[in-house]
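Example record

Each entry pairs one chain with its bound ligand, NAP.
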Amino acid sequence: MSFAPGILQGKSAIVTGGATGIGSFIVRKLGTLGAKVGIVSRKQENLLKAVKDFKEEDGIDVAWRTGDVRDPDGIKKAFDELAGEIGGIDILVCNAAGNFICPTEELSWNGWRTVIEIDLNGTFNCCQAALLHLKAATDGGRVISISTTQADFGWPGAAHAGAAKSGIQNLMKTLAAEWGQYGIRANWISPGPIEGTEGVDRLIIQQGLGDQVKKNIPLGTFGEGDDIANAVVFLSSDTGKYVSGAGLAVDGASQWNRQR
Ligand code: NAP
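C-alpha coordinates for the complex follow.
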Protein backbone atom coordinates (compact mmCIF):
# COMPACT_ATOMS: atom_id res chain seq x y z
CA MET A 1 0.00 0.00 0.00
CA SER A 2 1.42 3.37 -0.94
CA PHE A 3 0.55 6.92 -1.92
CA ALA A 4 -0.33 7.80 -5.50
CA PRO A 5 2.83 8.20 -7.59
CA GLY A 6 3.64 11.85 -8.14
CA ILE A 7 1.48 13.00 -5.20
CA LEU A 8 4.27 15.46 -4.28
CA GLN A 9 5.15 16.52 -7.83
CA GLY A 10 5.90 20.24 -7.94
CA LYS A 11 6.74 20.41 -4.22
CA SER A 12 10.12 21.28 -2.73
CA ALA A 13 11.20 19.98 0.66
CA ILE A 14 14.08 20.48 3.07
CA VAL A 15 14.83 17.74 5.59
CA THR A 16 17.33 18.57 8.34
CA GLY A 17 19.41 15.58 9.35
CA GLY A 18 18.21 13.94 6.13
CA ALA A 19 21.40 11.95 5.48
CA THR A 20 20.87 9.32 8.19
CA GLY A 21 18.28 7.30 10.08
CA ILE A 22 14.65 8.40 10.02
CA GLY A 23 15.54 11.51 8.01
CA SER A 24 16.89 9.40 5.17
CA PHE A 25 13.63 7.41 4.98
CA ILE A 26 11.72 10.68 4.79
CA VAL A 27 13.98 11.94 1.99
CA ARG A 28 13.59 8.72 -0.03
CA LYS A 29 9.81 8.81 0.35
CA LEU A 30 9.38 12.50 -0.52
CA GLY A 31 11.78 12.18 -3.45
CA THR A 32 10.24 9.05 -4.95
CA LEU A 33 6.77 10.64 -4.70
CA GLY A 34 7.95 13.55 -6.84
CA ALA A 35 9.23 16.25 -4.47
CA LYS A 36 12.55 17.99 -5.01
CA VAL A 37 14.48 17.53 -1.80
CA GLY A 38 17.39 19.25 -0.07
CA ILE A 39 19.17 18.00 3.05
CA VAL A 40 21.23 19.86 5.65
CA SER A 41 23.44 18.61 8.44
CA ARG A 42 26.95 19.14 9.82
CA LYS A 43 28.99 16.30 8.35
CA GLN A 44 29.85 16.55 4.68
CA GLU A 45 30.86 12.87 4.50
CA ASN A 46 27.37 11.80 5.67
CA LEU A 47 25.73 14.10 3.16
CA LEU A 48 27.85 12.97 0.21
CA LYS A 49 27.33 9.27 0.97
CA ALA A 50 23.58 9.74 1.36
CA VAL A 51 23.24 11.73 -1.87
CA LYS A 52 25.10 8.97 -3.73
CA ASP A 53 22.88 6.27 -2.17
CA PHE A 54 19.67 8.20 -2.93
CA LYS A 55 20.74 8.45 -6.57
CA GLU A 56 21.92 4.86 -6.96
CA GLU A 57 19.19 3.12 -4.95
CA ASP A 58 16.14 5.35 -5.57
CA GLY A 59 17.06 7.29 -8.70
CA ILE A 60 16.53 10.64 -6.98
CA ASP A 61 18.77 13.72 -7.10
CA VAL A 62 19.01 15.31 -3.67
CA ALA A 63 20.58 18.74 -3.09
CA TRP A 64 22.68 19.26 0.03
CA ARG A 65 24.42 21.88 2.14
CA THR A 66 26.43 21.55 5.30
CA GLY A 67 24.92 23.48 8.19
CA ASP A 68 24.48 23.42 11.94
CA VAL A 69 20.91 24.06 13.08
CA ARG A 70 22.35 25.92 16.10
CA ASP A 71 23.70 28.64 13.80
CA PRO A 72 20.80 30.84 12.63
CA ASP A 73 22.78 32.75 9.99
CA GLY A 74 24.42 29.64 8.58
CA ILE A 75 21.09 27.81 8.38
CA LYS A 76 19.42 30.79 6.68
CA LYS A 77 22.19 30.84 4.07
CA ALA A 78 21.96 27.07 3.50
CA PHE A 79 18.15 27.19 3.21
CA ASP A 80 18.21 30.17 0.82
CA GLU A 81 20.76 28.44 -1.41
CA LEU A 82 18.87 25.16 -1.37
CA ALA A 83 15.58 26.93 -2.09
CA GLY A 84 17.23 28.44 -5.17
CA GLU A 85 18.32 24.98 -6.25
CA ILE A 86 15.11 23.00 -5.59
CA GLY A 87 12.54 25.70 -6.41
CA GLY A 88 11.56 27.08 -3.00
CA ILE A 89 10.51 25.43 0.23
CA ASP A 90 6.97 24.05 0.42
CA ILE A 91 7.77 21.50 3.11
CA LEU A 92 10.20 21.84 6.02
CA VAL A 93 10.94 18.72 8.04
CA CYS A 94 12.77 19.55 11.29
CA ASN A 95 14.32 16.18 12.01
CA ALA A 96 17.88 16.97 13.18
CA ALA A 97 18.45 16.18 16.84
CA GLY A 98 20.99 14.93 19.33
CA ASN A 99 20.52 12.95 22.52
CA PHE A 100 22.40 10.92 25.09
CA ILE A 101 21.38 9.10 28.25
CA CYS A 102 22.44 10.70 31.54
CA PRO A 103 20.66 10.92 34.90
CA THR A 104 19.71 14.53 35.59
CA GLU A 105 21.78 14.75 38.79
CA GLU A 106 24.90 13.99 36.71
CA LEU A 107 23.92 16.09 33.69
CA SER A 108 26.32 19.00 33.13
CA TRP A 109 25.15 22.44 32.07
CA ASN A 110 26.99 21.90 28.81
CA GLY A 111 25.21 18.60 28.15
CA TRP A 112 21.81 20.12 28.91
CA ARG A 113 22.54 23.19 26.80
CA THR A 114 23.83 21.24 23.82
CA VAL A 115 20.69 19.13 23.41
CA ILE A 116 18.38 22.10 23.99
CA GLU A 117 20.36 24.10 21.42
CA ILE A 118 20.24 21.41 18.74
CA ASP A 119 16.71 20.11 19.25
CA LEU A 120 14.67 23.09 20.44
CA ASN A 121 16.65 26.16 19.37
CA GLY A 122 17.63 24.41 16.14
CA THR A 123 13.97 23.80 15.26
CA PHE A 124 13.19 27.46 15.95
CA ASN A 125 16.13 28.57 13.78
CA CYS A 126 15.01 26.34 10.88
CA CYS A 127 11.40 27.55 11.04
CA GLN A 128 12.54 31.19 11.04
CA ALA A 129 15.00 30.54 8.21
CA ALA A 130 12.33 28.89 6.05
CA LEU A 131 9.49 31.33 6.75
CA LEU A 132 9.78 33.59 3.69
CA HIS A 133 9.92 30.54 1.43
CA LEU A 134 7.02 28.82 3.23
CA LYS A 135 4.94 31.97 2.85
CA ALA A 136 5.60 31.91 -0.89
CA ALA A 137 4.56 28.24 -1.27
CA THR A 138 1.71 28.02 -3.77
CA ASP A 139 -0.57 25.74 -1.74
CA GLY A 140 0.66 26.83 1.68
CA GLY A 141 3.84 25.82 3.45
CA ARG A 142 4.14 22.83 5.77
CA VAL A 143 6.33 22.46 8.83
CA ILE A 144 6.67 19.00 10.29
CA SER A 145 8.85 18.48 13.34
CA ILE A 146 10.00 15.08 14.50
CA SER A 147 9.38 14.82 18.23
CA THR A 148 9.05 11.60 20.26
CA THR A 149 6.37 9.79 22.24
CA GLN A 150 8.66 10.26 25.26
CA ALA A 151 8.00 14.02 25.23
CA ASP A 152 4.53 13.46 26.67
CA PHE A 153 5.91 11.87 29.84
CA GLY A 154 8.84 12.30 32.17
CA TRP A 155 11.88 10.79 30.47
CA PRO A 156 14.34 9.53 33.09
CA GLY A 157 17.88 9.81 31.74
CA ALA A 158 16.94 12.29 29.03
CA ALA A 159 15.63 15.40 30.79
CA HIS A 160 17.32 17.57 28.16
CA ALA A 161 15.75 15.80 25.15
CA GLY A 162 12.37 15.45 26.86
CA ALA A 163 12.25 19.16 27.66
CA ALA A 164 13.42 20.08 24.15
CA LYS A 165 10.90 17.85 22.39
CA SER A 166 8.03 19.08 24.60
CA GLY A 167 9.12 22.60 23.70
CA ILE A 168 9.09 21.70 20.01
CA GLN A 169 5.52 20.42 20.30
CA ASN A 170 4.40 23.67 21.88
CA LEU A 171 6.32 25.66 19.24
CA MET A 172 4.42 23.80 16.50
CA LYS A 173 1.10 24.69 18.16
CA THR A 174 2.12 28.34 18.33
CA LEU A 175 3.31 28.44 14.72
CA ALA A 176 0.07 26.78 13.61
CA ALA A 177 -1.82 29.62 15.30
CA GLU A 178 0.46 32.47 14.18
CA TRP A 179 1.28 31.28 10.65
CA GLY A 180 -2.11 29.84 9.72
CA GLN A 181 -2.87 33.25 8.21
CA TYR A 182 -0.12 32.54 5.65
CA GLY A 183 -1.63 29.15 4.83
CA ILE A 184 1.19 27.43 6.69
CA ARG A 185 0.41 24.25 8.62
CA ALA A 186 2.67 23.20 11.50
CA ASN A 187 2.47 19.73 13.02
CA TRP A 188 4.67 17.18 14.71
CA ILE A 189 5.15 13.44 14.55
CA SER A 190 6.00 11.44 17.65
CA PRO A 191 7.81 8.27 16.64
CA GLY A 192 8.13 5.35 18.99
CA PRO A 193 11.32 3.29 18.73
CA ILE A 194 12.25 2.84 15.05
CA GLU A 195 14.39 -0.19 14.23
CA GLY A 196 17.72 0.14 12.49
CA THR A 197 18.31 3.71 13.68
CA GLU A 198 21.32 4.93 15.60
CA GLY A 199 18.96 6.15 18.35
CA VAL A 200 17.42 2.74 19.00
CA ASP A 201 20.77 0.96 18.70
CA ARG A 202 22.52 3.26 21.18
CA LEU A 203 19.72 4.21 23.58
CA ILE A 204 17.83 0.90 23.72
CA ILE A 205 19.67 -2.13 22.25
CA GLN A 206 23.13 -1.27 23.64
CA GLN A 207 21.59 -0.61 27.08
CA GLY A 208 20.19 -4.20 26.98
CA LEU A 209 16.63 -2.85 26.96
CA GLY A 210 15.44 -4.26 23.59
CA ASP A 211 13.11 -7.02 24.86
CA GLN A 212 11.80 -4.94 27.74
CA VAL A 213 10.89 -2.03 25.45
CA LYS A 214 9.21 -4.32 22.91
CA LYS A 215 7.15 -5.95 25.65
CA ASN A 216 5.70 -2.53 26.46
CA ILE A 217 4.63 -1.84 22.88
CA PRO A 218 1.06 -3.11 22.37
CA LEU A 219 1.76 -3.80 18.67
CA GLY A 220 4.78 -5.84 19.79
CA THR A 221 7.44 -4.56 17.38
CA PHE A 222 9.68 -1.60 16.76
CA GLY A 223 8.50 0.74 13.98
CA GLU A 224 10.14 1.15 10.57
CA GLY A 225 11.56 4.31 9.01
CA ASP A 226 8.85 4.15 6.36
CA ASP A 227 6.15 4.40 9.04
CA ILE A 228 7.43 7.88 9.88
CA ALA A 229 7.99 8.80 6.23
CA ASN A 230 4.39 7.87 5.39
CA ALA A 231 3.14 10.10 8.20
CA VAL A 232 5.22 12.97 6.78
CA VAL A 233 3.60 12.47 3.37
CA PHE A 234 0.13 12.48 4.93
CA LEU A 235 0.85 15.75 6.74
CA SER A 236 2.61 17.45 3.84
CA SER A 237 0.24 16.58 1.00
CA ASP A 238 -3.43 17.51 0.53
CA THR A 239 -4.44 14.41 2.49
CA GLY A 240 -3.76 16.38 5.68
CA LYS A 241 -4.90 19.78 4.47
CA TYR A 242 -7.04 20.61 7.55
CA VAL A 243 -4.56 19.28 10.10
CA SER A 244 -2.50 21.93 11.89
CA GLY A 245 -1.16 22.35 15.40
CA ALA A 246 -1.49 18.60 15.89
CA GLY A 247 0.70 15.71 16.92
CA LEU A 248 0.60 12.32 15.23
CA ALA A 249 1.92 9.44 17.33
CA VAL A 250 3.45 6.72 15.16
CA ASP A 251 4.54 4.42 17.93
CA GLY A 252 2.58 1.15 17.94
CA ALA A 253 0.63 2.58 20.90
CA SER A 254 3.80 2.62 23.05
CA GLN A 255 2.35 5.52 25.01
CA TRP A 256 -0.58 3.39 26.16
CA ASN A 257 1.48 1.57 28.78
CA ARG A 258 2.75 4.87 30.10
CA GLN A 259 -0.78 6.13 30.70
CA ARG A 260 -1.95 3.27 32.92
P1 NAP B 1 20.18 10.16 13.61
O1 NAP B 1 20.39 9.17 12.52
O2 NAP B 1 21.29 10.38 14.59
O3 NAP B 1 19.77 11.54 12.95
C1 NAP B 1 20.06 12.78 13.47
C2 NAP B 1 20.49 13.66 12.32
O4 NAP B 1 20.58 14.99 12.79
C3 NAP B 1 21.86 13.27 11.74
O5 NAP B 1 21.75 13.15 10.34
C4 NAP B 1 22.77 14.45 12.11
O6 NAP B 1 23.68 14.72 11.04
C5 NAP B 1 21.77 15.58 12.28
N1 NAP B 1 22.22 16.58 13.24
C6 NAP B 1 22.56 16.37 14.54
N2 NAP B 1 22.95 17.52 15.10
C7 NAP B 1 22.85 18.48 14.14
C8 NAP B 1 23.11 19.87 14.11
N3 NAP B 1 23.57 20.52 15.18
N4 NAP B 1 22.89 20.53 12.96
C9 NAP B 1 22.44 19.90 11.86
N5 NAP B 1 22.16 18.59 11.83
C10 NAP B 1 22.38 17.88 12.96
O7 NAP B 1 18.92 9.81 14.51
P2 NAP B 1 17.45 9.23 14.23
O8 NAP B 1 17.27 8.19 15.24
O9 NAP B 1 17.20 8.95 12.81
O10 NAP B 1 16.55 10.47 14.70
C11 NAP B 1 15.91 11.34 13.80
C12 NAP B 1 14.82 12.11 14.54
O11 NAP B 1 13.83 11.20 15.03
C13 NAP B 1 15.31 12.89 15.74
O12 NAP B 1 14.58 14.10 15.85
C14 NAP B 1 14.97 11.98 16.91
O13 NAP B 1 14.83 12.68 18.13
C15 NAP B 1 13.64 11.41 16.43
N6 NAP B 1 13.26 10.14 17.05
C16 NAP B 1 13.94 9.00 16.74
C17 NAP B 1 13.50 7.80 17.26
C18 NAP B 1 14.18 6.51 16.90
O14 NAP B 1 13.67 5.44 17.22
N7 NAP B 1 15.32 6.54 16.23
C19 NAP B 1 12.40 7.76 18.13
C20 NAP B 1 11.76 8.94 18.44
C21 NAP B 1 12.17 10.13 17.88
P3 NAP B 1 25.18 15.32 11.26
O15 NAP B 1 25.82 14.48 12.31
O16 NAP B 1 25.77 15.23 9.89
O17 NAP B 1 24.99 16.74 11.69
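Strands lie at 12-16, 36-41, 62-66, 91-94, 142-146, 185-191, 247-250.
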